[in-house]
Design a protein that fits this description.
alpha/beta; about 375 residues; 15 helices; TIM Barrel; about 20% strand; 17 strands
C-alpha cells in the first residue's frame, strides 16, 4: 500500500508512493477538495490535467445531499462524479461539529440536524464506515471529535478519548465487513486528536499506533491556532507515528505551512484555499498573492505568473483576468481557480523533486525568498 522511497538528509521529509485500487499517489501530495463531489468551478479533466493524483470529498455533505441511495444507484462515488483516480473521504466529523444545528455528542455517536433542511440524523462510527464503504472511496476516515481552538484541557481530553474509542470501533467494524490482506479495497486512517496539549496528543498517538491502521492523520490543526503551535503539533506528532505508514495533516493548505509540514515528516495535505481564493479574485504566484481586481492590472498584459505553465498563464493576461472579474464573468473564477490549483500541485511536484535530490532546504529557502506572504496590490 505505502512504500517509503527516500528520506531527506537534513530533515524528516520523505518521498513515498501510496498504491490504491484506483491508482498510485506520489507523496508528498496535495489533494484538491471536492466537498460536494466536485472541485468548485472546474471540470474533472482540468483537475487531472493540473496534476491532481487524488481528490478529497466529504461524507457529511454527500450523506445529506444527494444521499446514499443516489450514489449507490450510480455505482459509487467514482462513477457518480466521473473521477477515475483515487478519492479520500473525510468522515464529516468536523462538519457535524461546525455546521450542523442542535448537535448532541455521546460516546455512542452524534445526533444532529442538517444545516440544509433541519432534518434529524444520528450517526455512529459504524454508520460512517458503512457510508464510506458505499461511497467506494480509496482512503477513508473514521468519525472523530475535533476540538476547536482554544479549548480547555478537560474538553480536549474528553474529545481525544472519544476519538480513540470511535477509531477502535471503526477499525473493528470495517474488518468485520471487508476483511484485511490482499482483498482490502479501502484504506482506513486513524486520526490523532488532542488539541494543543502535547501529552494528550502523545496518548492518542500511542493508542492508535497499537492498531494496524493503514495510515495516520493529524486532526484538529489549522482551526485557528498560531503557526508556531501548528508546527509544534505536527513535529511532535509525526515523531510518534510509524515510518512505514503515510501521514496526513488535515486542512493544512498554505504554501509556507506545507513546506514546514513536509520538513516535519508529513506526506499528505488538503485545503479549499486554492479554489476559494480563486473565486474571490486572489491568485497565488511565485512572488506572493495578488488581488487581480485591483487597479494596477488594468493594462498589465503580462501573464498572471511568468514562472507558471498552467493553461491560464499560458493564454491570458492579468488585464484580461481583471476584466473578467470586474465584469462578473464566470470564466474569471474558473481561470483563477485553475491557476491556483496548478500552483499548489506544482509546489508539491517541486517539493518531491527537491527531496529526491536532497535539496529541500535550498528549495524552501529560495521559494520563501521570492514568495511574499502578504497580499500584493
Amino acid at each position: 500500500m505505502f512504500k517509503l522511497i527516500q528520506e531527506d538528509k537534513n530533515s524528516k521529509a520523505r518521498l513515498g508512493k501510496l498504491t490504491t485500487l484506483h491508482g498510485e499517489i506520489e507523496t508528498p501530495c496535495f489533494m484538491p477538495v471536492g466537498t460536494h463531489a466536485t472541485v468548485k468551478g472546474l471540470y474533472p479533466k482540468d483537475v487531472e490535467e493540473a496534476g491532481a493524483q487524488i481528490m478529497l470529498s466529504n461524507t457529511y455533505h454527500l450523506f445529506l445531499r444527494p444521499g446514499m441511495e443516489v450514489i449507490r444507484k450510480a455505482g459509487g462515488l467514482h462513477k457518480f462524479m466521473s473521477w477515475n483516480k483515487p478519492i479520500l473521504t473525510d468522515s464529516g466529523g468536523y462538519q457535524v461539529f461546525s455546521l450542523a444545528f442542535l448537535r448532541k455528542i455521546s460516546d455512542k455517536g452524534v445526533e444532529f440536524q442538517s444545516h440544509i433542511d433541519g432534518s434529524k440524523h444520528f450517526l455512529t462510527p459504524e454508520d460512517v464506515m458503512d457510508i464510506e464503504r458505499d461511497l467506494g472511496s480509496d482512503i477513508i476516515m473514521p468519525l472523530d471529535e475535533c476540538s476547536h481552538y482554544p479549548c480547555t484541557r478537560d474538553h480536549a481530553e474528553i474529545a481525544m478519548k472519544r476519538t480513540i474509542n470511535w477509531a477502535k470501533r471503526s477499525y473493528k467494524h470495517k474488518e468485520e465487513q471487508e476483511g484485511s490482506g490482499p482483498t482490502k479495497k479501502q484504506f482506513l486512517f486513524g486520526i490523532v486528536q488532542g488539541a494543543t496539549y502535547e501529552d494528550l496528543r502523545n496518548i492518542c498517538a500511542k493508542e492508535l499506533t497499537e492498531i494496524d491502521f493503514d495510515g495516520f492523520a493529524i486532526g484538529g490543526v489549522s482551526v485557528g491556532e498560531p503557526s508556531n503551535l501548528i508546527y509544534n503539533i505536527l513535529g511532535n506528532t509525526t515523531a510518534l507515528l510509524p515510518l512505514e505508514k503515510p501521514r496526513y495533516a488535515m486542512g493544512i493548505g498554505y504554501p509556507e505551512d506545507i513546506l514546514e509540514a513536509v520538513e516535519r515528516g508529513v506526506d499528505m495535505f488538503d485545503c479549499v484555499v486554492p479554489t476559494r481564493y480563486g473565486r474571490n479574485g486572489t491568485a497565488f504566484t511565485s512572488t506572493g498573492k495578488i488581488k487581480i481586481g485591483n487597479a494596477p492590472y488594468i493594462e498589465d498584459f503580462n501573464a498572471l505568473d511568468v514562472r507558471c505553465f498552467c493553461y491560464t498563464c499560458r493564454n491570458f493576461s492579468r488585464a484580461y483576468l481583471r476584466h473578467l472579474f470586474n465584469a462578473q464573468e464566470m470564466l474569471g473564477l474558473t481561470l483563477l481557480s485553475l491557476h491556483n490549483l496548478y500552483f499548489f500541485l506544482d509546489l508539491a511536484r517541486k517539493i518531491r523533486e527537491a527531496i529526491k535530490n536532497n535539496q529541500l532546504s535550498e528549495f524552501k529557502k529560495e521559494f520563501l525568498a521570492n514568495y511574499n506572504n502578504s497580499l500584493c496590490a
